[in-house]
Amino acid sequence: MSKYDVVIVGSGPGGYVAAIRCAQLGMKTAIVEKYSTLGGTCLNVGCIPSKALLDSSHHYEDAVKHFETHGIDIAGEVKVNLKKMIARKQAVVDQTTKGIQFLMDKNKIDVYEGHGSFKGANEISIKKGRSKAEVIEGKNIIIATGSKPASLPFITLDKERIITSTEALKLKEIPKHMIIIGGGVIGLELGQVYKRLGAEVTVIEFLDRIIPGMDGGLSKELMKVLKKQKMKFFLSHKVKGVERKNNVVKVTADDKNGKEVEFQGDYCLVSVGRKPYTEGLNAEAAGVKLDEKGRVEVNEHLQTNVDHIYAIGDVVRGAMLAHKAEEEGTMVAELIAGQKPHIDYNLIPGVVYTWPEVAAVGKTEEQLKEEGIDYKSGQFPMRALGRSRASMDIDGFVKILADKTTDEVLGVHMIGARCADLITEAVTAMEFRASAEDIARMSHAHPTYAEAVKEAALAATENRPLHI
């Protein structure tokens, strides 16, 4: 039996980053992955492929709607080649997953392909197909098995017309009418992809706003922009039935007054979140406790009730974000090595990769009010920037929330072009406990989208933005 200092089950962003950090710290490391490619949901059927399709569909929309304004004339009709678009997406995925394999080889990490499950507290059984299970031993074990799409108990996912995000990434045709159940990040991103390509898109959301975990101002602005792009929204609607007959999918829901409403389309994307994937892990064989939601229970050091077994990423509490999993993977590796790392979960940013992009870090206005914290707010519209007018990306704003007494930045919320990248400035500032005035007095290059951050900080500091 092969023995290791650390065995990691799952090769998503949390798992493979944990493996690399363990190897860097001199530990003999193995990683177990049930699929033939590394990278988990994020690289194979999540973050990377969805961004590839978002970028491709964005290019198409620009060509159809904006090139002429920019003085670019295209002879003939601009057409979508969905097969080629999906193939490019897959090429990006293949290149990225091969890159992870390269990193495993470079760091001398042993990779085992097969379904990993506990045989005992220190033993992982690896079963591939019909072959006999192989068992390896780990002095320390990290559970990084991630999550999978959630559904509703009355919905039968046929993965053809009633689908999850996984199937939505490889459709063979552009839907005529895609009904999306759930107004969260995944549904909105994929909805925008197919809306750009010509589908009618209807979003049905149980709550009274989209992207419900983010600041209310972002929810309102994003819905306003997406409505302008002709996406349809039905908020405060409780879905109670999804049926398919041939190529027609019928969704029934009750509106906020209890009245039944019916929707018909040719595809229904069920996008109601994700759930931790612990199926077949056989955690009980190691004595590891799961909570009522199927998550692995951990302490502040991401340690389970069994001292040498840890869990990270989507399989534990907290936001299901690839970068959160990476930070946790690094932290656990360093804890095992005897170091004292730390994660500030309040400073893990969230991003929606629609266009305009939405990004946030820290407290929302709703949270500050609920916690009784006195705060001040500064907001600046993207349309007031020269850079935004030059690129025709004028939707959105940056909002900075700061402590009313100390001026320390407590939250930054933005929607606009390149906000997924801009949010890092806010994270950096907040890591160093910056005040709104600190940001306001920093020189920001002109013309850039980042100037909106400076202007919002000026608005929060002394209510003196320069360009409005």
How would you describe the overall organization of this protein?
- The chain has three domains: 3-148 and 275-343, FAD/NAD(P)-binding domain, CATH 3.50.50; 162-272, FAD/NAD(P)-binding domain (3-Layer(bba) Sandwich); 347-462, FAD/NAD-linked reductase, C-terminal dimerisation domain (Enolase-like, domain 1), CATH 3.30.390.30.
- Helix content is 32%, strand content 25%.
- The protein is built from 13 helices and 22 strands.
- The strands form five sheets. Strands 1, 2, 3, 4, 5, 6 and 17 form a seven-stranded mixed β-sheet that branches. A five-stranded parallel β-sheet has the order 8-15-9-10-11.
- It is globular.
Give me the secondary-structure topology.
Layout: E1 3-9, H1 13-24, E2 29-33, H2 40-45, H3 47-65, H4 82-106, E3 110-113, E4 115-118, E5 123-127, E6 134-143, E7 147-149, E8 162-163, H5 165-168, E9 177-181, H6 185-196, E10 200-204, H7 216-228, E11 232-234, E12 238-245, E13 248-254, E14 260-265, E15 267-270, E16 274-276, E17 309-311, H8 322-336, E18 350-352, E19 357-362, H9 365-370, E20 375-381, H10 386-391, E21 397-403, E22 409-416, H11 419-431, H12 436-440, H13 451-462
Parallel strand pairs: 1-2, 1-6, 2-3, 6-17, 8-15, 9-10, 9-15, 10-11
Antiparallel strand pairs: 4-5, 5-6, 7-16, 12-13, 13-14, 18-19, 19-22, 20-21, 21-22
Rg estimate, integer Å: 24 Å
**Overall form:** globular
The profile of the biggest β sheet is: 7 strands, mixed
CATH superfamily heading of the largest domain? FAD/NAD(P)-binding domain
Number of helices: 13
What's the architecture of the largest domain in CATH terms?
3-Layer(bba) Sandwich
First CA to last CA: what distance? 69 Å
CATH fold description of the largest domain: FAD/NAD(P)-binding domain
- Poorly predicted ranges: none
Q: How much helix is in the residues?
A: 25-40%
Tell me the domain tally. Answer: 3
CATH class of the largest domain: Alpha Beta
What class do helices, strands and sheet pairing give?
alpha/beta
Structure summary, number of beta strands: 22
The averaged pLDDT comes out at: 97
Q: What share of the residues does DSSP label as strand, in percent?
A: 15-25%
